[in-house]
C-alpha cells in the first residue's frame, strides 16, 4: 500500500551554505524509487509517495545516505507520514487559526521528547513566549517571530536536544505539508 511522506531536511540552503537545490533533491528521492515527488520552498521540504514497507527511520537513513552520495556532505533528515503531520496540527494547543505563521512553529524531533529535557527552563521568564510538547514535536509560540525569540534559543540548546535530530518549521509550512501529503 502506498504511503505519502514529508522529508524535512535540517540546515540546508542557509546563507549559501550546504546547498541542496530542490530539483536535485527531487531527483535524489526519485532515484530511491519514490514517486509523486514535490518540494516546498528552498528550505528542505519534500513530499513523496512510496510503496516501500520501510519504516520512517529506515526511509530517513536511506535519504541521508543518498544526499551524502550526491552532494558530498551529510544532512540530518526526518521523514514523517502525512497522518502524523495531520495529527500534529490537530493536537496543537495554541490557537493556530488566530496567529500569523511566523508566531507558531513546530520543532520536529527524531524521537520522543520527555518533559524532563525542558524542566530546567523557567518558562515564566520568557512569557508571553511559550511551548508545549507533543508526539515527537514541540509547539513553540513566539509572538515576535523565531528570529527575535529568546525561548526559541533556549529550547534549541544542544544540552536540551542532545541525542535527537531537531528541525523547526513555521506554522504556514506545517499546514502546507499536511495539505501536500493529503493531496491525491
What is this structure, in a nutshell?
The protein has 184 residues and is an alpha+beta fold. It contains 6 helices and 8 strands; from the N terminus they run βαββαβαβββααβα.
Characterization of the model:
This protein has helices at residues 22-31, 56-71, 82-90, 150-155, 158-161, 171-182, and strands at residues 3-9, 35-40, 45-50, 77-81, 104-109, 130-134, 137-141, 166-170. By secondary structure, the chain is of the alpha+beta class. Strand 2 and strand 3 (45-50) form a beta hairpin.
Q: Give the N-to-C terminal Cα separation.
A: 14 Å
Mean pLDDT score, rounded?
Answer: 95
Low-confidence stretches: none
For the biggest sheet, the summary is: 4 strands, antiparallel
| Coarse structural class | alpha+beta
Q: Approximately how much helix is present in the residues?
A: 25-40%
Rg over alpha carbons:
16 Å
Widest sheet: strand order?
2-3-1-4
Categorize the overall geometry.
globular
The portion of residues forming beta strands comes to 15-25%
Number of strands: 8
Secondary-structure element string: EHEEHEHEEEHHEH
Number of helices: 6
Q: Descriptors for this entry?
A:
alpha+beta, 24% strand, 184 residues, single chain, four-stranded antiparallel β-sheet, 31% helix
Question: What's the arrangement of secondary structure elements?
Answer:
Blueprint: E1 3-9, H1 22-31, E2 35-40, E3 45-50, H2 56-71, E4 77-81, H3 82-90, E5 104-109, E6 130-134, E7 137-141, H4 150-155, H5 158-161, E8 166-170, H6 171-182
Antiparallel strand pairs: 1-3, 1-4, 2-3, 5-7, 5-8, 6-7
Helix pairs in contact: 3-6
Amino acid at each position: 500500500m502506498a504511503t505519502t511522506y514529508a522529508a524535512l531536511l535540517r540546515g540546508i540552503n542557509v546563507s549559501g551554505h550546504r546547498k541542496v537545490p530542490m530539483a536535485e533533491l527531487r531527483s535524489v528521492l526519485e532515484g530511491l524509487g519514490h514517486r509523486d515527488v514535490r518540494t516546498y520552498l528552498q528550505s528542505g521540504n519534500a513530499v513523496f509517495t512510496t510503496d516501500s514497507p520501510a519504516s520512517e527511520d529506515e526511509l530517513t537513513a536511506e535519504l541521508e545516505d543518498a544526499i551524502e552520495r550526491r552532494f558530498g556532505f551529510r544532512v540530518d533528515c526526518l521523514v514523517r507520514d502525512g497522518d502524523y503531520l495531520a495529527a500534529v496540527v490537530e493536537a496543537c494547543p495554541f490557537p493556530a487559526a488566530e496567529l500569523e505563521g511566523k508566531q507558531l512553529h513546530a520543532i520536529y524531533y527524531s524521537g520522543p521528547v520527555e518533559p524532563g529535557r525542558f524542566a530546567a527552563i523557567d518558562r515564566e521568564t520568557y512569557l508571553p513566549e511559550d511551548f508545549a510538547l507533543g508526539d515527537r514535536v514541540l509547539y513553540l509560540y513566539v509572538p515576535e517571530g523565531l528570529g527575535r525569540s529568546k525561548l526559541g534559543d533556549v529550547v534549541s540548546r544542544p544540552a536540551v536536544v542532545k541525542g535527537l535530530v531537531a528541525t523547526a518549521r513555521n506554522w504556514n509550512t506545517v499546514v502546507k505539508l499536511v495539505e501536500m501529503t493529503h493531496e491525491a
